[in-house]
């Protein structure tokens, strides 16, 4: 009787093992795990000065996804596009604080808060500004 290690080292695998492995690898592409729908969100400037330019783009996206969904979606999942108008608001994306050389949790908090203040045009000294040098050296301002 062969041990488990000997079976793994054997150049010949049992047929059932090969079939099970093939079925497991093929499952994601057969629709076996297809979701009912996939929701994708976006924020666009639908109103304001860019509205006339962006509105037709959003309508084209909607028409494309309607056509994809009419043909069964993607791997059986319908795509649900949720579009919100930014209404003139500024979106402050998350910024990795490690670029500023953060070494403590407070450095990360200060960096994110500083980025929000930057977007509002409020001066601060919460983190050390980049001066053309790469690398850490501590994220706290002096």
Number-wise, the strands total: 2
List the domain count as a whole number: 2
Q: Separation of termini?
A: 71 Å
Structural class: alpha+beta
Indicate the proportion of strand residues.
5-15%
Low-confidence stretches: none
- Main β-sheet, spatial strand arrangement: 1-2
Q: How many separate helices? A: 4
Biggest sheet, in brief?
2 strands, parallel
| Backbone CA Rg | 26 Å
> What fraction, in percent, of the residue positions are helical?
40-55%
Globally, the shape reads elongated
What do these coordinates show?
The structure is a single chain. With 142 residues, the chain is α+β, with helices and mostly antiparallel strands. It folds into 2 domains: 49 residues, no CATH class; 51 residues, no CATH class. The protein is built from 4 helices and 2 strands; from the N terminus they run ααβαβα. It has a two-stranded parallel ribbon with strand order 1-2. It is elongated, with a radius of gyration of 26 Å. The N and C termini lie far apart (71 Å). The mean pLDDT is 75.
């Amino acid at each position: 009787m062969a041990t488990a290690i000997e079976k793994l080292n054997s150049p010949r695998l049992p047929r059932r093992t090969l079939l099970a492995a093939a079925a497991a690898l093929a499952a994601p592409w057969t629709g076996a795990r297809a979701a009912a729908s996939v929701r994708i969100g976006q924020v666009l400037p639908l109103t304001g000065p860019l509205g006339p330019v962006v509105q037709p783009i959003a309508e084209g996206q909607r028409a494309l996804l309607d056509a994809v969904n009419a043909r069964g979606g993607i791997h059986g999942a319908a795509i649900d596009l949720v579009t919100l108008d930014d209404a003139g608001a500024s979106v402050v994306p998350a910024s990795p604080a490690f670029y500023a050389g953060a070494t403590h949790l407070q450095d990360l908090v200060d960096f994110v808060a500083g980025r929000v203040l930057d977007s509002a045009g409020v001066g601060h000294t919460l983190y050390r500004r980049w001066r053309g040098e790469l690398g850490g050296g501590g994220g706290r301002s002096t």
